[in-house]
Amino acid sequence: MSFNNILVVCVGNICRSPIAAALLINHYPQKHIDSAGLSAVVGHAADSKAQEVMTARNIDMSDHIAKQISEELVKTADLIFTMSESQTKWIEDRWPHCRGKTFRIGHWIDKDIADPYQHDKSAFETAEKDIVDSLERWTDKIS
After folding, report:
1. Which residue, of 17, 77, 101, 143, has the greatest Cβ tally within 10 A?
2. Is 106 helix (H, G, I), strand (E, B) or coil?
3. What is the DSSP code string of 52-86?
4. What pTM, to 2 d.p., does this model score?
């Protein structure tokens, strides 16, 4: 199975999912990577601390605009990454056809990615590190 259309999901779509999507886009420029929130802060840019953390990696997220998850987004996705078991369950309960293609990003390291929203920059650095560690375990499955 090849995953050419990957959707990354968190709650607000301004911290964790934009970070994960930006890392995936950087690593897989040929794939279609998107992100959304379960209760997105629609129309907002990525959190300034999330942008700072990614700027340190020479990745620019200034054009990110938060959007709400939708039937259309989950239908076109080959693989959906969430930040927690509860988010995976939320998606699978709402769209049962997403079972089997929706996974916690930290699945292979058995980890939820803590929400850094409204915390200090170190919380964003931790989230980014956990996302990087999580994505490394997916490399052979995504490539």
Report:
1. 17
2. coil
3. HHHHTTT---TT----B--HHHHHH-SEEEESSHH
4. 0.96
